[in-house]
Amino acid sequence: MTKLFPDAPPVGTAMKATQESEEARRFLALRRSANKAFLGEPGPNPQTLNDILTAATRVPDHRRLSPWRFIVLEGEARTAFAEKAARVQREENEFASDGDLDATRALPMRAPTVVVLVSSPKDDNRTPVWEQELSVGALGHNLLLSANAAGFAGCWLTEWISFSDGINRVLGLEKGERIAGYFYLGTATADPQERARPDANALISRWTG
Prior knowledge:
- By secondary structure, the chain is an alpha+beta fold.
- The protein has helices spanning 22-29, 46-56, 76-92, 98-106, 129-149, 165-170; strands spanning 39-40, 68-74, 113-119, 153-157, 178-188.
């Protein structure tokens, strides 16, 4: 079987500083998240997902702290998480309706594979947490790119399940950790449409002193 991604070379191997590629330029210029409502089977199998996540970790990471980790929800684990999430919602929000709870149960069922990206900063007294969180954001984007390059559609969402102490306990987060988002991966059942994009020229300034 042809590998999806090449293996990383041994530490200390001389690497190319640039890898010019017209295909890569087109891929980046036309990047588009999938619509959360149109993600079906199949999702990546465990080995393919491991390859995707391995490729995703090639991001800027000052002092090699790896201030992130993954929690994978797939198969029946999604149903178990759905029920526990609904229970947490009921405990944390006394006004949650039956419809709200049903909507929560549906969240992990959007796609066959759900990856929870956890921000896990290391207290080394040298690297600011903010800098480590930027690395987490870079990894999130790289995860979408890696999945897409492997033939899977995906989207990155947060919603209330990213900001709940109860959900953090369900997923076993440790002190100082927080959820950067949920990545829903699967096979697109419909192609997304292009959406409005910012005018980059309006956002660029050049400091001249």
